[in-house]
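Worked example

This section walks through a single chain of length 396. The input is the sequence exactly as stored; nothing has been trimmed or padded.
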Amino acid sequence: MKKNKEHPKMFSKKYIFMLLSCMLFSTAMILFPHISLQAAQSGINIWFYSVLPALFPFFVFTKLMTYLGFHKIFGRLLEPLIRPLFNVPGEASFVFAMSLSSGYPVGVQMIADLRKSQSISKTDAERMLSFCSTSGPLFMLGTVGTSMFNSSPLGFSIAISHYLGSILNGFLFRFYKKNSPSNRIAHQNDIKTIVLDCQKNFNHGREFMSKISEAIYDSFKALLLVGGFITLFSILIALLETLNFFHFISLFISNPLTNSIFLSYVKGFFEITIGCNEVSQITHSGFVLSTLLCSSIISWSGLSIHAQALTILSKTDLKKSIYLVSKITHTLCTIVCSLIISNLFLKYMPYDIATFNMDFITKNSTFIYNLLFSTKLMLCIFILFIVTVIIDMLKK
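Given that input, the structure is written out below as tokens.
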């Protein structure tokens, strides 16, 4: 008979920490039920009115486009550009484009899907995590730039710094496991050959309809997970504020401006929307400081986004530590880009600070508006891809 595994003689510090954390969290929700309920409602509203309609079309269409082989087609087109720059296959161009246009956590989800289907190697997938996990323009330009700061130029400066930081970070990670084997698309195959090869998976309409159903189901399941994390961290942050956690850690800083910056970073460490909101409340910060703080907080993305990404990556063989390290380096790269951009172009530009109002954003960015906006954006990208393929085929 097999011997039973011996119980560990010492308690795991990690287990004790998680056990105590859960107990404290549960106790705090019982002691402050009204605060917990309000925070949960706020988190669900953010998810339903902003996140769900903005990401759902991208989740569905990216799964369908991956099934139809779009990543292989554009991998062939952009391999000569992507390979020297990031040392990854051309498929990364498709993932990067989707991440830029849709935001967290679409890029990580696509990388996980490509890895599970063995379309890319483990090393390539880990390199792609460094630059294919970005925020979307709707959040940076709309929520942060327009709604929080009442300044479109500041929103654009944050977005440019964030995206340039991701490109620089991807370039740095091209040296990660430089000598590891990598998947490469055969350059001798033209677009027509690749399209015919992808067509083998598309035999008849019934199969495609089943793939649509599967894409909708998987997308909604993933977005429910995203909504759960948003709600959970909304409650956590509200309880920490009620318990004066943020006030306590700021007692050691006497300078008001430094204290405000520190608090914005601490809150942004948990959740990017709240962190950027704190930055918008800092008076006399100016374009340079506001761009620097918000772009770095968005590049870090917060524990809420990290929890979503790590849950997705847990179903693959990719190292979660690589993702976390890449977010730290992405933040540092963004700070460098932000300092250059804001000092060169925006240093002397005045702006008015707008008070952040979640009700304003919820009412003016309705579910239907966000759904139509993201769907139209997805269709524009799809049409652009089709036109690019046709132009390439006509050149042959």
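What to look for: The radius of gyration is 22 Å.
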